[in-house]
Amino acid sequence: MTALREVVGSAAVGVSMAEMPEGLAAIHDRGCAAAIWLREPMESFQAWMDGLAPEFLPRTRLILRPDAVREAVAETCDLVGTPQGPERALLIDDTAALATIFAELIGTPYLRLRYDVITGNACRKFHTDTVRARLVCTYRGTGTQYGIAAAGAEPSEILTVPTASPILLRGTLWPEHPRSGLRHRSPPIEGTGETRLVLVLDPIADPAGEADRGLLH
């Protein structure tokens, strides 16, 4: 995937836009609530991704070391029958790369990896996640929506992350206060026939509490 080389007209206050992965490090800057790595997927990859039957899209929830992501994602693709080919290899490699970038930026030895296949209104309310940080990348369908909201209200302006562009978000456990008021949600797609494939990465400092749930890989 290549960086999107266009001027972005607008972004919410406290959201950093970058054309290279190094730009995600802005999440550590004072007052930065989120950072987006703007990318434009290769046409062949996006056509393949958009054309897959939903049952062949990977879906899983695992806690694992960043260096185990590539193998785990390949196994997940095998389990659901994701077709072999260069596009599948790109998906696996890109997910592994994002996991490495996320783990290094946040400083986490383990992470929770989720692939969600979404056809309805999942998490349609604007919210902030109860984690230190979260990376979300929508490989298929409409990207995450976000905006600045006052307490108890929805954002007055709703922006959408481009498909294939990762957004790194601070959660409620991020130590800086006061918080920016940035909220995000999954876009409401009920009744549209749209299918989304979303990658979600969360930091896990100690996986011991998760081992009894069968999630440790």
Topology:
Elements: E1 2-3, E2 15-18, E3 34-37, E4 39-40, H1 43-51, E5 60-64, H2 69-80, H3 86-106, E6 110-118, E7 133-140, E8 145-148, E9 159-160, E10 167-170, E11 182-185, E12 196-204, H4 208-211
Helix pairs in contact: 1-3, 2-3
Give structural notes.
By secondary structure, the protein is an alpha+beta fold. It has 4 helices and 12 strands. The chain has helices at residues 43-51, 69-80, 86-106, 208-211, and strands at residues 2-3, 15-18, 34-37, 39-40, 60-64, 110-118, 133-140, 145-148, 159-160, 167-170, 182-185, 196-204. The chain has a 7-stranded mixed sheet. Strands 9-8-11 form a 3-stranded antiparallel sheet, with no helix packed on it. Helix 1 (43-51) crosses helix 3 and helix 2 packs antiparallel against helix 3. The longest helix has 21 residues, at 86-106.
How would you sum up this structure in a few lines?
This protein has 217 residues and is of the alpha+beta class.
| Amount of helix | 10-25%
- Sheet-strand content, in percent, reads 25-35%
- Summarize the helix and strand pattern as letters: EEEEHEHHEEEEEEEH
Q: What is the global morphology?
A: globular
Main beta sheet strand tally, sense and closure? 7 strands, mixed
Q: Based on helices, strands and strand pairing, what is the structural class?
A: alpha+beta
Number of helices: 4
The value of Rg in angstroms is 17 Å
Uncertain ranges: 1-10, 211-217
Average predicted confidence as pLDDT: 88
Number of strands: 12
Strand order of the largest sheet: 2-3-10-7-12-6-5
